[in-house]
Amino acid sequence: MKKVFIHSAVCISAQYTFDTEEFLNDIIELSGETASAQYPNYRDYIAPSASRRMATAVKMGVSAASKALEKANLNQPDAIITGTGMGCIEDTEKFLNSIIINDEAFLTPTSFIQSTHNTIGAQIALGIKCKAYNSTYAHAALSFESALLDAQMQLQHEESNHILVGGVEELGKEIINSVRMMEDANFDGIQVPFGEGASFFVLSSEAKENAIQLVDMEVCSSASEEIIHKKLILFLERNSIIASEIDVLIGGRNGDVFDGYYDAIATLFKIAPELCYKHLSGEFYTASAFGLWTACQLLRHQNIPEDLIYKGRVKPEIKTILLYNQFKGRDHSFILLKL
Amino acid sequence: MDVAITGMGIISAIGHSMEENKASLLAAKNGIGTLKHIQTKHSELIKVGEISFSNSELTNHLQLPENHNYTRTGLLGLFAAKAALVNANITNIQEYKTGFISATTVGGMDMTELYIKQFATNPEVQKYIHTHHAGDSTQKIADALRITEFVTTISTACSSSANAIMLGARLIKSGKLDRVVVGGTDALSKFTINGFKTLMIQSDELCAPFDAHRKGLNLGEAAAYLVLESKEVVLKEKKEVLAFLSGYGNANDAFHQTASSENGEGAFLAMQKALRTAKLNPEQIDYINAHGTATPNNDLSESIALQRVFGRNIPDFSSTKAFTGHTLAAAGVVEAVFSIVSLQEQTVFPNLNFSAVIPETGLKPVTSVIKKELQHVLSNSFGFGGNCSTLIFSKA
User: Biggest alpha carbon distance in chain B?
Assistant: First the structure.
C-alpha cells in the first residue's frame, strides 16, 4: 500500500488564513450567532463573469481549490473530491423562496441548477477542464472526512497519484437562523458562532522533502464515550504509535454538552497539549477541515499560537498530531499526521 | 469477482417490493401518472412516477411512532433498506464489518418546503429544522439498521447512487469493509418539480427516451439498496449471490453545469473506465440500461457516447425511466436493481413509448420484453455538474 502525503493546505475561514503566509498571529475574536468568512479577492481566482453567478460556497471553494493546486504545483489532479454538509444552501434558499413568494410563477433556473451539492466540485472541474473522478459527500460532520477517506483509499491502492480534496460550507441566510435558535434554546448548546469556510488540500502518494504524511484516519457514525476511547486505543495500536508519541492533540470542542467525548479521550494523553479551534473558525459541518489545515500549519511553522491552546504545555518539537472531531455525539473522526 | 450482490430492496412507482417491480417490468407496465401527494400549480401539466404510499402509510408499515421526524426521503429509504437486508438474509448486522452508503439530492426538502416559514414560530414543525441536510435520512436509516461504523452520504445529482455503489465496492475491495448496504433515496418535491420546470425539460406526456420527438423527462421518486458482500463472507456464509459488480467508472464531462457535451465526453470516459475495471471488451456487454432521461440533450449526447464506445455494434439497450420516472439520486441504484433482475431473468426490459429513431444517430432501443442470454449488463447514470458514472453487473 502506498503512503499518503499532504502537498498543500489552503484555507478560507473567519480568520486571516488565506492571503497570508503567517499562522494565526492576528486573531479575529468571533462573537454573536454566526461568523462569516474573510472572503478573498475572488478576481484573483475566478473570472468576474463567472463569479457573478456563483454563490459564496462555490466562490470560496473554487478559490481555495485553485490556490491549493497552485501551491502543490499541480495542473490536473487525478480526482476532485468535495465534502459539504449543507451544500449550496444560499441558492437552495433563494430558489425555494422564489417558489414561495411568487407562488410557483416567474421562476428562473440559475439558482436551481446551482443548488445541488456537487456544484462546488463541478465548478472546480469546469474551471480547469478536469475530466477525472469527481465526487461530493454530504454527510453532516463526516462530509469532509468521507472525501478525505475516499482520497486516502485511491492513493493507497494506486488508483490515483494526486488528488484535490476539500471541505466547504456557506452560512446561507435562513435555515441557519432556525438552527441557531434551536441551539440557543438549550443552555448546554454549542457555545461558538456558526461559521463557514473552504479548506482544500492536495493529497499525493509522492513523498516530498518535509511532506506531511496522512498516516491514517478512521470514521465512526455513532458510539458512546467508552467505545470512542477504546477505538482510539486500537487506532493508535494499529498504526504502531503509543500515546506519549503524540505531540499535539487537536479536538473539535465547541462548548456544548458533548465536549465530554474530548475529555474521555484526553485522559490518554498525559504529556501532549490539547488544542481547540472552533472558537476561531466557528462551528459548521466541515469545520474539521479548518482543524486539518491548522494541524498542517503547526507542523510547518513548529509553533503553537496561544489562542489555540485548550490545556497543557507545548512540546519543543511537533512531529505527530492526532485530530479528533465529533458533532452532537456522533460522526466521530480520528486523523493522524506525521512530519 | 470480488464484490457480490447478495440482497436488493426497492420501492418505486412500479411497486413496493422486488416482486412487484419485477412483475411490472415483465408486463411492460409503467408507473407514471398524475401527481397526488404534493400541492403544486403544475400538477395538471406534468406526469410523474410517484409512489402510491402516503407518509402515514409508510409510517405504519415501518412501525414508527407517529411523532417521528423522518422526511419522506428517509421513510422511503428505510423501507427499501430494510427490504434489502431481509432479502440478503441478514439478521445479525454486527457479525461483520458493515457500512452504509446512501445517496440523495433533495434530502429533507419535502418537509423544508412545507414548513420553512413556520420554523421560527411553530414548535410542532421545529423537529424538521435538523432534517433538511442530506445526511439526516442516511443517519436515521443507519441507526434503524444498527449500522454504527462507516456511514456516509453522496450527493452528485443524478449519478449519486451509482457513486454510492462504486464507493461500497471499493471499500470491500480494499478490505475496509466486509459488507456494505449501498443505494439511495429521493422523494418528489415541489422544489425539484419547479426546478425542472424552469429548465423546460419536463414532459406533460409519458416520457419517450431515445425517441426523435422526445419532449423531456417525467420526475419520479424511489429508494433502493443493494447489499454488497466480500468473497470471504459469501464463502463463509454460503450466501446465494444474485450478481457480481464487476466494473465501475466515474468521470466528469467538464463542459457545463447542467448540459451534457455534444460528444458525450464524460459518458464516454465513464463507460471506458468501467470496462477497464471489469476487464471486459465492449463486445462482451450484452445489454445497456441507459441513463436515457428523455430530454433532448441527454439522449443525443448519450447516444453519441455509446457510438464512440461500441462503434457500429451497439448492444441491445433501453432506458427504464419510462417505467419509474427519473428518480434523481435513486436512479442509479433503481437501474442497478433492474440490471440485476435482467441478469437473473435473462431478460431485457423495454424502452417504453418509443416510435422514431433520433435522426443524428439512428439508434433503436429494445421496445419489447425479450429473452436472451445475458452475461454482462452496463448501466449509466449522469448528472448535473457533469458527473458521469457507469456500473457493470455480471451474472452470478
Answer: 63
Query: In terms of DSSP bridges, do strands A79-83 and A133-137 run parallel, antiparallel, or are they unpaired?
Result: parallel
A133-188 pLDDT tens trace:
999 999 999 999 999 999 999 999 999 999 999 999 999 999 999 999 999 998 89
Residue of B nearest to A118 (CA): B156
3-state secondary structure of B246: strand
Complex ipTM: 0.97
Helices vs. strands in chain B: H and E counts, helices first:
12, 14
Choose, out of B71, B106, B154, the residue to mutate when testing the contact with A (most A CBs < 10 Å): B154
Q: Is B151 exposed, middle or buried (0-12, 13-18, 19+ CB in 10 A)?
A: buried
Question: Can you read off the three cell numbers belonging to residue A124?
Answer: 472546480
Q: Using alpha carbons, select from B326, B247, B269 the residue that is nearest to residue B12.
A: B326
Q: Name the strand (E) or helix (H) holding A328.
A: none
What region, left, alpha or beta, does residue B107 occupy, with left being phi > 0 and alpha being psi -120 to 50 degrees?
left
Distance from CA of A25 to the nearest CA of B (A): 35
Distance from CA of B386 to the nearest CA of A (A): 7
B308 touches A: beta carbon within 8 Å: no
Q: Which residue has the cell 402510491?
A: B52
Cell of A79: 480526482
What are the pLDDT digits (tens) for A293-332? Answer: 999 999 999 999 999 999 998 888 999 999 999 999 999 9
Alpha-carbon span A64 to B244, nearest angstrom? 40
